[in-house]
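Tip: read the tokens left to right.
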């Protein structure tokens, strides 16, 4: 019982120290080529958030495409062993990366703590944080967490931070003046998962957590609209409630949700990666705001996609107008050049 009350960071750091004393390691099966540069991916999502799983997959594919390095994923559930494995094998020209996403802040403080440990653990290597949302709250807890993050981030002399929207970009520049800061789209937007298929049914992908903004009454109105317009309705969440997924299992789950999107004539979602999955599968979507800036500002990258309608303020008429006028316009938005600062760092 006492151990449970100890803060995560102290438990993690104690376990990390103990792990360093052990000789065995779960990553000994990985064969590294000493003559080839290695790029490591820390915090790789092996849990059931398919948005984060997609980020990990897209990041791996992006690195493979734009570098000639061997790529090694360190699943977040194996961070303790992974840190020591990399520490014992890393070369001067190797690169350490941390996954993109929306967990840089005090809301997901355990992930943020591991990210900071990674930065401290490799002071002599280039570290790249893939496109992230920075979201430290204005509470006392958030202020304290940001102060700690500033000390660690600004203490590294080769740290490169990527923001995936403007608000995070400005906050990173303000708080992490010693780091190099860039702005690029969410890394999942670098994927293309479109395929020719017969589309039918509506798909609903709505969140039910602290980031939910749409009210119970608005949810009921939306449900009535969907029921009146579509006979076949599928419900799919990007959270599947699994953990410690293998790479093959992760890819299988991603293909399942992408196929569900590709088979739908329209998607209703308030999830950031619900919107992004619609874009990369060229699926029409009605998108609702969440309780922060992530959806709204990420939409700026794809606002020329006329198949995706962002509902800033819930309005029944706006939803019906989009549905009734849906033409499945061509989506020819090219974002590859937006990632140039990122692939330049991988060379």
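Filled-in amino acids:
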């Amino acid at each position: 019982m006492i151990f449970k009350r100890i803060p995560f960071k102290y438990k993690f750091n104690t376990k990390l120290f103990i792990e360093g004393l052990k000789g065995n390691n779960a990553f000994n099966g990985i064969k590294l080529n000493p003559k080839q540069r290695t790029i490591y991916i820390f915090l790789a999502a092996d849990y059931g958030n398919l948005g984060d799983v997609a980020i990990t997959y897209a990041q791996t594919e992006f690195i493979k495409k734009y570098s000639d390095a061997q790529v090694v994923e360190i699943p977040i559930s194996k961070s303790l062993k992974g840190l020591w494995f990399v520490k014992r094998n890393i070369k001067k020209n190797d690169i350490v990366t941390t996954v993109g996403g929306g967990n840089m802040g005090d809301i997901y403080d355990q992930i943020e703590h591991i990210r900071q440990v990674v930065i401290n653990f490799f002071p002599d290597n280039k570290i790249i944080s893939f496109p992230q949302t920075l979201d430290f709250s204005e509470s006392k807890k958030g202020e304290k967490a940001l102060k700690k993050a500033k000390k660690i981030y600004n203490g590294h002399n080769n740290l490169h931070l990527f923001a995936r929207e403007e608000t995070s970009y400005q906050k990173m520049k303000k708080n992490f003046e010693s780091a190099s800061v860039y702005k690029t789209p969410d890394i999942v937007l670098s994927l293309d998962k479109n395929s020719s298929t017969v589309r039918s049914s509506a798909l609903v992908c709505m969140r039910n957590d602290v980031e939910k903004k749409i009210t119970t009454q608005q949810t009921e109105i939306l449900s009535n609209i969907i029921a009146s317009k579509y006979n076949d309705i599928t419900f799919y969440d990007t959270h599947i409630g699994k953990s410690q997924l293998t790479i093959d299992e992760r890819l299988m789950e991603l293909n399942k949700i992408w196929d569900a999107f590709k088979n739908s004539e329209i998607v209703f979602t308030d999830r950031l990666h619900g919107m992004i999955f619609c874009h990369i599968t060229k699926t029409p979507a009605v998108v609702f705001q969440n309780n922060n800036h992530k959806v709204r500002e990420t939409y700026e990258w794809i606002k020329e996609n006329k198949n995706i309608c962002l509902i800033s303020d819930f309005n029944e008429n706006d939803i019906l107008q989009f549905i009734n006028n849906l033409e499945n316009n061509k989506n020819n938005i090219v974002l590859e050049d937006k990632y140039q600062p990122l692939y330049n760092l991988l060379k």
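The first strand starts at residue 38 and ends at 44. The chain is about 40% helix and 15% strand.
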